[in-house]
Amino acid sequence: xxxxxxxxxxxxxxxxxxxxxxxxxxxxxxxxxxxxxxxxxxxxxxxxxxxxxxxxxxxxxxxxxxxxxxxxxxxxxxxxxxxxxxxxxxxxxxxxxxxxxxxxxxxxxxxxxxxxxxxxxxxxxxxxxxxxxxxxxxxxxx
Length: 142
Prior knowledge:
By secondary structure, the protein is α+β, with helices and mostly antiparallel strands. It has helices at 3-12, 19-30, 37-44, 53-65, 133-136, and strands at residues 70-75, 78-82, 90-93, 99-101, 127-130. A 3-stranded mixed β-sheet has the order 4-3-5, with no helix packed on it. A two-stranded antiparallel sheet has the order 1-2. Strand 3 (90-93) and strand 4 (99-101) form a beta hairpin.
């Protein structure tokens, strides 16, 4: 993704497009592997020697809070990010740890406030866990 497109996405979410923010947004959009903070940092630090893990962490958290990226909490030890903010389910492979988009599966419709007993839902995430096609063809030892 070109910096111009990443900059436009940031601006449309009320985020000032600095060089580092543009680079981080470009990275998560170009690398559809649902990168972690460490992945983003390692992918960019060669081009931005002053970049810190804290900056990447704070930037990705801000992207998530302003709906410019999805934060996917896999467990208490692993959080990854998705530049595709359209509602879609994810699949996490228990063996290899990869996270996949399941674009062919529908997301459940968020219920209205009345249907949800007064709760006002503003975000929903759905993910499945199991074995990806590559891992399911090998013997699982558990």
